[in-house]
Amino acid sequence: MATTRVWDIFVRVFHWGLAASFIVAWVTGDDWKALHLWAGYSAAALIAMRLIWGVIGTPHARFSQFVKSPLVVANYLKDIVTGREVRHLGHNPAGGAMIVALLATLIGLCISGWLMTTDAFWGSEMMEDIHETLANLALTLVGLHVAGVLWASFRHHENLIRAMVTGRKRVPESGDVL
Questions:
Q1: Sign of the C-alpha dihedral, residues 161, 68, 14, 26?
Q2: For the CA atoms of 12, 94, 20, 129, what is the dihedral angle to 10 degrees?
Q3: What is the pTM of this model?
Q4: How many angstroms separate the CA atoms of 95 and 78, rounded?
Q5: What CATH number corresponds to the domain at position 114?
Q6: Among 50, 41, 151, which residue's Cα sits nearest to residue 103?
Q7: Is 2 part of a structural domain of the chain?
Q8: 93-110 pLDDT tens trace
Q9: Which of 3, 66, 125, 154 could connect to 91 by a Cys-Cys bridge, CB 3.0–4.6 Å?
Q10: Alpha-carbon distance 113 to 110, whole Å?
Q11: What is the Cα–Cα distance from 39 to 32, expressed in whole angstroms?
Q12: pLDDT in tens, 11-66
């Protein structure tokens, strides 16, 4: 099967690095504070670099390629339900919306975590509640993200997990969105 390069090395390292940072932060949240903080700082640094790469990076890494209007996302979700969704070489509209939701939630998670280390919010129960709520929201979004990846892999006969490792996907076919 012929393939084409879609995800550049930065996008792939970012994706798996952020996943690892989130897992480490989740697992260490209550027990290993130093490791938890470093995982959070790593996530924040990765996100900052991804925001820059989303503007200046390779074509499929750019936000302008995959961030769509709510109407486009809603229509794509409707197409999924009716089994008429088209294959996208890059992120599909639902995937783009998930990226925005995950980035926004993780940014809030990093900011709230950092604020808890400052004098103003040290020991703040309110800030801890915000941080925990965002962590739970992020975990829910990650679950939805994984489910969406598995569903799209099944529907389009393409291993999207492998594509995020190798950077390669099946070459576009008639009807695919580049």
A1: negative
A2: 150
A3: 0.93
A4: 14
A5: 1.20.950
A6: 50
A7: no
A8: 999 999 999 999 999 999
A9: 66
A10: 5
A11: 11
A12: 999 999 999 999 999 999 878 999 999 999 999 999 999 999 999 999 999 999 99
Counted domains in the chain: 1
Assign residue 68 a region: left if phi > 0, alpha if psi is -120 to 50, beta otherwise?
Answer: beta
Indicate whether 23 belongs to any domain. Answer: yes
What's the 3-state SS for the chain? CCEEECCCHHHHHHHHHHHHHHHHHHHHCCCCHHHHHHHHHHHHHHHHHHHHHHHHCCHHHCHHHHCCCHHHHHHHHHHHHHCCCCCECCCCHHHHHHHHHHHHHHHHHHHHHHHCCCCCCCCCHHHHHHHHHHHHHHHHHHHHHHHHHHHHHHHCCCCHHHHHHHCEEECCCCCCEC
Q: The tokens 């009807």 sit on which residue?
A: 175
**What gap in Å lies between CA 94 and CA 152, rounded to an integer?**
10
